Each structure stands twice: as structure tokens, then as C-alpha cells.
Fold this sequence. Notes:
The complex is a heterodimer of chains A (243) and B (263).
Chain A: H1 11-44, H2 47-78, H3 82-115, H4 124-146, H5 150-180, H6 185-217, H7 231-239
Helix pairs in contact in A: 1-2, 1-3, 1-4, 2-3, 3-6, 4-5, 4-6, 5-6, 5-7
Chain B: E1 13-24, E2 27-38, E3 42-46, H1 53-59, E4 70-78, E5 81-82, H2 91-97, E6 98-101, H3 112-122, H4 129-142, H5 146-149, H6 162-174, E7 180-184, H7 192-205, E8 210-214, H8 218-224, E9 227-232, E10 235-241, H9 242-247, H10 252-259
Parallel strand pairs in B: 3-8, 3-9, 6-7, 7-8
Antiparallel strand pairs in B: 1-2, 1-4, 4-5, 9-10
Helix pairs in contact in B: 3-4, 3-6, 4-6, 6-7
Amino acid sequence: MSTVGQHHIVKSFDDELKRLHDALARMGGLTEQQLQGAIEALDRRDSDLATQVMNDDGRIDECEVFVNEQTIRLLALRAPVADDLRAVIATLKAAGDLERIADHAANAAKRSLVLNQMPPVAPMRSLVRMGKLVQGLLAEVLGAYLAHDAERALAVRSRDQEVDDLYSSLFREILTYMMEDPRTITACTHLMFIAKNIERVGDHATNIAEMTYFLVTGRSLNNPRPKRDTSALEGALEGFGEE
Amino acid sequence: MAQTQPQGGAEDPKMTARAVTVHYGAKPALHGIDLDIPAGRVTALIGPSGCGKSTFLRCLNRMNDTIVGARVGGSVTLDGEQIYGPGGIDPVLLRMRVGIVFQKPNPFPKSIYENVAFGPRIHTLFRDRDHLDQMVETALVKAGLWHEVKDRLHELGTGLSGGQQQRLCIARAIAVNPEVILMDEPCSALDPIATAKVEELMDELRQRYTLVIVTHSMQQAARVSQQTAFFHLGRLIEAGATEQIFTAPAHHLTQGYITGRFG
Lengths: 243, 263
């Protein structure tokens, strides 16, 4: 009986798929670095690090351009099917998510430069805690993606709720802080935007988890992940009504 | 791995195959195939050379009967009627209802008109000359060849280009108003333009007929069929919706074959 090997009969096809996989791995590593840099810059009030994160964003954009070009090339020249097709599509989409994550990191870094001009505000500690949680999720989902581990990816997907919970509580915390001391409103507004950036990173990590599941199983996750970010509702109902 | 359940089970199967075996002398070529051929759809049979896909195709209109030493077992039905066995449909009638087009265009060394009129003549399907003319025209129109040949109907069919010859063979198959058309690698001798014309024709033909095509071109199977069945070493490994087979095949052999990782 014929055997199914790991490798394509046409070796250059393997090389091209590997190049695409490696490009995503490199892009993932760089994106992790960017997110870590942004969180650290916030935590340590390190403007040099924040500036570096902002400047390095272009490297991730270059990676995305490479992945896009390589994908078009593979689709046009190799007409991939089955798991090869899923790998190409999943990589293309995951690269889009990574690019967005890096943008959010750069935005957070940019706001941290402004925050460093003002006195520290207390909710920053919770923000950094949320940032580290998201950083952990990103590392985990990238590991799952590169190892083609659907189980691990699903675990990450379910953990995005923790991020949403933290975001909702951080929202309340920042709001309370602003109401108690209106002098902190400028700094707290920046914090709020940064919190949203980090929460969005969690959503993109979830997208990558879903792409991993599709890549491995060929099935899409249809059931929407339950959202527990209730900040929009709370802001309307509690935040301003009582004062 | 023999399938106990018919794969690609269709709600409205035009043809069914159950436990179909074929031996050439002592040599087994098919080991018990269960497959439904859904009506009004194109079913593509794919697999490496010698996997039994053409043998299976030929079971569907008893073309294996013409091969000395070939024995067919199991059952094949057309609209629920057995096509083998004592109560089976008469093979001549069967081949009118289940036409076949081969890899190499094989028009008769007769005029274009006579090629198409051949079937209606031997089955005496026409009332008079005008009726026969009409049947020839209709078949050539359906085969997408009418406008290219209407002014040269009495020239030799063998004088047409390869792609035109193949469409003439399709017109010849259509002329007797079949229900199922079998195609054994119908485009492998054609250039990409002629191939595209035949593929477009298949898409139109499936409005009226049920098609089964054997192809070595995975992309052709993906383009033209709605159901794909993958054969390997005389067994049906996997059958299912073409979209599913080409995005997420269930069996590792199918995946290895269609992605080009077959050892």
C-alpha cells in the first residue's frame, strides 16, 4: 500500500510552505516582543522603551507584507488544497491579527509617553496585570498555532473571558478614580484607551486560536464565544446616573 | 478498508453501487465498492493509476462485459433497476440510457452529421428525415458545437480539432437522450481552451443529465464536480461533497493524494 509521507513529492512546495510558516513564527515572536515592550514601558514609565516599541512597529508591517505576497504566490502557483490550503489561509489571517496586535501595542506605547508627563495613577497596576495576562495568552496561542495544537488553542479561546472580566472591572475602577479626583481625568482617559487596546489584543489572540482550530480540524468554530465585557452597559447604567 | 456504508449517500441517487467487485481473470481490480451517484450532479472519480476508478466507471454501463475474463460482482442499479443479473436491463438499452465518452476523441470515420445520427439510427428513435435532422441539431447545440459545424455537417468528423472531436463525441452520446453520461478522462488529450469548453459543457449538461467523470486532474475534479470519490488499490477510500474533500478530507490517504504527498 502506498504511504502518505510528511513531504510533498515536489520539494520546492515544501520549501515555500515552510518559508510561510517561518515568516509567521518570526512575526509572532516580534509581536510578542512589541506587546511585552509596551506593557513594560507602562509599568516602568520608560519613555525610551515606549519610543522603541513605536519605531519597531514597521518591522511587523514588513512581515505582514511578506506573508501576503507569499500567500498570493502560493495560491497562484501551487493551487494548494486540503491541509495545505488551510495552512495558507490560516497563516494569512493570523498574520492580519498579529499586525493588528502590534498596532495596539504601538498605540499603548504612544499613550504611555503622554502618561509619563503626568503623575502616576493607581489603576495602572490593574492595567499592567491585564496586560500581562494578555501577553501570556498571546504566547500560548502562538505556541498552539505553530505546534498545530487545537486543544491548546481552544483553552486560550476560553480564557479570553478572563481578559473581558478584567477589562470590565478596570473600567469601573478607572471611572471611580476619575469621579473621586477630576484632576486625574486626562491620565485616566489615556488609561481607558490603553485598556481597550489590550482588550482588543485578547480578541485577536482569540481569532488566532480559532484559526488554529480551523487549520488542524478543517472545521470553523461557529458558536460565538460568550462575551462578558459589560463595561458599555455599566457605564450607561451606573457610572453617571447617581452623581 | 472496505466501506460498509455507502459513501456520499445521496437523497435521490440516480445510480447505486453495492459491494461491487471486479476481477480480471484471477486478479481482483475492485474490492467491494458502495457508492451512490446523485441525480443531476457531476461525480468525479479520482485516484492514482490502477486504483480502479475507470474499472468502476465501466461497471456503470457494463462496458466491462466486452473485456475477456472480466467478472463483475455485487449490484448496480439505475433508477432502482438492477443492471446485472438475469432480470437486469438489456445492455444495449442500458448503454443508450448510460452513455460514455472516452479519453481520446473517437469519432467514427463518417460525416459530422452521421456521427451524431448514428445512435438515433440504430435505436430507430426518429420518425422521419426532418425529425432526425432536428435530433442532430439539438444534440450539437447541447454539446456547444452547432455554431462551429452547422455549415460543414457533411465533412468528416475526424477532420475537426481535438476539442471539437471530443464535443462531437459528447453530441453523439447526447443524441440518444441518455440519463447518465460517463466520461473517462474526457479532457486529457485537449488543450486548456478546449478543456474549459468541455468543463463548461459539463456544467450545463448536469441540468439535464447525471454525470460521472474519471479524471487525473485534481483541479478539474474540484472545478466540475459536486461529489468526489477517491479510489486507491481497488477500494473506495472516501467519497463526499467535493468542497469537503478538497478543504478537509476525512482520510489521510485522500489528503496525501490530493496534496501530492503520496509515497
